Amino acid sequence: MTTAPPASPQAATAGPAASRRMGRAPLVALLGVMLLAAIVVSLGVGAVQISPAAVVGIILDHLGIDSGIEFTARQDAVLWSIRLPRVMLGVVVGAGLAVAGAALQGIFRNPLADPQLIGVSSGAALGSAGAIALAGGSLGLLAGPIGGFVGGMAAGLAVYALARHEGRTEVVTLILAGIAVAAIGGAGAGMLSFVVDDPAIRTALFWSLGSLSVATWKLWWVTLPFVLAGLVVLPMFARALNLTLLGEREAQHLGVDVERVRMVVLAVAVLTVGATVAAAGVIGFIGLLVPHGVRLAAGPDHRVVLPASAVGGAALVVLADLAARTMASPIDVPVGLLTAVVGGPLFLWLLRRTRREHGGWG
Amino acid sequence: MKRLAIPETGNLARGASARSPRRWVGPIAVLLVSALIATACGGDDAATTTAAPTTTGTGGGLPVVYTGADGVESTITDAGRIVTLSGEFTEIVFALGLGGNVVGVDLSSVYPEEAADLPKVGVERLLLAEPIIAQNPTVVLGDVDATPVEVIDQVRQTGIPVVIFPRYEGVDAPATKIREVARVLGIPETGEELAASVQEEIDAVVAATAAVEERPPAAVVYLANRGSTILMLGDNTVMEGLLEAAGAIDVAPAAGADGMMPLTPEALAGGAPDYIITTDRGIDATGGLEGFLEIPGVGETPAAAAGNILVFEDLYLLGLGPRTGQLLRDLATAFHPDLTIP
User: Fold this and answer.
1) Residues of A whose CB is below 8 A from B134
2) How far apart are CA A312 and CA A315, in angstroms?
3) ipTM above 0.90?
4) What are phi and psi of B156, to 5 degrees?
5) What is the overall mean pLDDT for chain A?
């Protein structure tokens, strides 16, 4: 992990900072409590009044438990068909983006490798929009995540190929190539929504800044397996990613097939990102903000970073979306605007820090 | 109206300025038709005043089953609480005399003034389900720009019928739209009356301009994104056929404009319109008429040289509503000052 001083990860974990670092269990538990709180608050807030008791009553009712708490049919419909799927989609999207971001930073050994910044998200947006336009009729809702995977993978491989130089990945070239690929993908998706007169393609604004307003249970079920793949598979590579931090050659000597790990992790991360983009558009900086927050608290060990990022990402997106749908009500503020407001400055700070560690870009 | 093609930021700007409508007061002596409208809408023979008094919850014509442009069949049993998702429908519902039943409007509903004070439920294309549902409507009226479609579905899931009208274009559109809205609200007779009187006004202008020989070239220009995007509205937009009906030649087809696609400055200048017609919100966004004339392409037209910039309120110009007859009359009078329209 390049956020650790270039010396060695052992030094980083055994250093004086180690005593202040949180272990995996307490950190995940803390983030889990935050996530739960975010979900509870989100379910209780909206233009339609639903009391906390009624929220509980409605959920129990759908689980087949009669709680005796009174609520109206309309409150039931609003909570169960609108608010809950939206919040749950936020959980899935946030968890997916954050875990994918952490994994991408690991394989590229680059602290700036956010899915959006390296062009994967925009590639996925173009792939999604294209697939919906071409195959939305035959594939239905699956067209989005499948197209997202194809587009995101094309973008990811292109950026990777461009950034590889003499057996290593250049930090700056990765970002510069990402900018170019993101521009192409974003423009393509925007162009499609511009010329194809079909609301299923969604708007250029949706693709560029994201929104959870289109959440339905159906969309949630379609998105879930792709994100679960990331949540299950990516942590399985935690040890390999840790060893890769030592350096590619060192990892190779320790028995890690670096190239294979890189390709599998890239594919799974892109699969995850592609599905989140198909469901909610490009919500930027989640994959940057959350893993870095986790590393600050618990150090660079991927066995902690990956699961903790997933939980933290879910909490962050649920909270950001709560703000998005309430701050300017009745307008749905694109949630990506809010994540960028926080993420942008963090990116600048990381840029400065990374530059210092590398002794300038040269 | 092919508003789908407007870049989204234009819509945001539209929403924002709708909340605090400002009237532009310019220093240059130009024919500012807005003032003219203000008096015309005071309402002597205006269509807006011909409708039935008001507000019974359910008209005699309910329930109505309406299959919308999205293919979804809605059953409307009660028009007692109406939410409108576009200013054009707000205007029509008020003109039909059911303004008292409107409980929520979108941000583009700036006319009539009473509508502007109603609770706001959202803005087209960035709709949220809950603010609409929170008004407890018995029927929601929108057109195909009322999106995301998932939000419309969410509202329907709570049992509220959402009527999605198609886009209507051309000089017959106002009457058609009025009839359809009235039918959905269970007051077809009132709709027929209003539609007939609006059509009569339109026909009067069309008849008067039919014999006109010298037709000035004119262009309807819509500014999006604070003037950085110029749209020329011709065929396949709400303005289709309106300039011709008012006795002008629409330069849009010759300039290559189709639908709501953005235009290059050269295309506008090359069309050489003698008149440019635009909206006050667009003028506001460019910082007044001076700013408007500085937009590349605008300043190079004969219209700019002669000071023939006609500025209308957005909904009046683009709403294709009950005031379309007056709009055509305004335009015809501007193009042909000597023309008598009965």
Assistant:
1) 47-49
2) 5
3) no
4) -65, -35
5) 88
Residue of A89, A196, A203, A325 to mutate when probing chain B, most B C-beta within 10 A? A203
3-state secondary structure of A197: coil
CB A300, CB A9: distance < 8 Å: yes
pLDDT tens-digit map of A199-232: 677 777 888 889 998 898 999 999 999 999 999 9
B82 inside domain? yes
Yes or no, beta carbons of B158 and A74 under 8 Å apart: yes
| Full residue range of the structural domain in which residue B51 is found | 46-167
Work out whether strand B82-84 and strand B309-312 pair parallel, antiparallel, or are unpaired: unpaired
CATH of the domain at B88: 3.40.50.1980
A26-64 per-position pLDDT tens digit: 999 999 999 999 999 999 999 898 999 999 999 999 999
Q: Which residue among A73, A194, A330 sits closest to B128, beta carbon to beta carbon?
A: A330
Q: Indicate the pTM of the whole model.
A: 0.79
For residue B256 the two structure tokens come to 């290559």
Could you identify the residue written with the tokens 């594919």? Answer: A267
- 3 state SS of A115: coil
Question: pLDDT tens digits for B156-166?
Answer: 999 999 999 99
State how far Cα A229 lies from the chain centre: 13
Residue pair B141/B90 in contact (Cβ under 8 Å)? The answer is: no
**CB–CB contact B153 A329 (8 Å):** no
Residue B114 forms part of a structural domain: yes
pLDDT in the model for residue A199: 67
The dihedrals phi and psi of B312, each to the nearest 5 degrees, come to -125, 155
**Beta strand extents in B233-291 (DSSP E only):** 249-250, 275-279
Count of domains in chain B? 1
| Beta carbons of B146 and B85 less than 8 angstroms apart | yes
Judge contact between A224 and B29, C-beta under 8 A: no
Here the tokens at position A248 are 């590619």
Place of tokens 């709560």: A322
